[in-house]
Write a structure and sequence with these properties.
The protein is mostly beta strands and 250 residues long. The protein has one domain. Strand 8 and strand 9 form a beta hairpin.
Length: 250
């Protein structure tokens, strides 16, 4: 998982009744647009908008001959540790970045092992140790979805919080390259839920916000750096590399 957001100049035409001639409206709109352009500073391109793309695992699987894919994977995750058998060969995805910093995301994984739409926040990524790409702005997001391992079980048994990093080129504002690292909160030594009921912390009479409505394994806790897999004590499933394009009005 590309088009740039442009500002629309104000249209100063007031349409009254049903007898207005269409060409007159068009002329009024054009006149208003011309006025708006005078002395108006053009807004810089941003990644705000809806996007579509495909994410594929790092390192590239056998048969993937894309040198750029391999090089990008090496840049963002080195040898790219992952949990064997957990990363599908590709994940089509549709993230949406809103102007208020909210991010929404859907992906094709929802059709196989059910999970909800993801919700979270995005922002410019600065001074956080993440890899740079020359000439591109770096943005990152953390979002959260709830899911179930067995399709159709109707029982909540996990949550996933991915790190989502994109590289934005103002000169090519309708395409972005990036990577995503899903962190899994699920059955294990401290399972996220039991029989569909979230396992929570004990109640705390001194703080009503810290007790029995907070998961024992909290998916809202800050993510560790990089992708630390369960083999080394973490909960990252692996790294995906993606290319996404902006969804535009045709």
């Amino acid at each position: 998982m590309k088009s740039v957001m442009t500002s629309l100049a104000a249209v100063g035409a007031l349409v009254i009744g049903l007898s207005v001639n269409v060409p007159d409206v068009a002329r009024a709109q054009n006149k208003g647009n011309e006025k708006g352009k005078k002395g108006e500073k053009k807004e810089a391109p941003t990644p705000i908008g809806a996007w579509f793309g495909i994410a594929r695992p790092c390192p590239p699987p056998p048969g993937d001959t894309s040198a750029s894919h391999a090089a990008f994977c090496t840049l963002v995750c080195g040898a790219c540790p992952n949990v064997p058998g957990t990363l599908p060969p590709e994940v089509p995805m549709m993230p949406t970045l809103l102007a208020d910093g909210t991010v929404l995301a859907d992906d094709a994984g929802e059709l196989q092992v059910y999970h909800t739409t993801a919700h979270g926040k995005w922002a410019e990524s600065k001074d956080d140790g993440l890899p740079n790409l020359f000439g591109r702005q770096r943005f990152k997001a953390h979002f959260l979805w709830l899911g179930q391992n067995a399709f159709g079980s109707n029982k909540l048994d996990n949550a996933v919080k991915p790190r989502f990093v994109t590289y934005f080129d103002p000169e090519d504002p309708d395409r972005m390259i990036g990577y995503i690292q899903p962190h899994f909160y699920s059955p294990g030594p401290t399972p996220f839920s039991t029989n569909g009921i979230v396992n929570v912390r004990p109640a705390n009479p001194a703080d009503v916000f810290s007790g029995d409505h907070i998961p024992a394994v909290d998916p809202l806790a800050p993510l560790p750096a990089g992708c630390n897999t369960p083999a080394t004590g973490g909960n990252c499933l692996g790294t995906y590399h993606f290319v996404i394009r902006r969804i535009k009005v045709d």
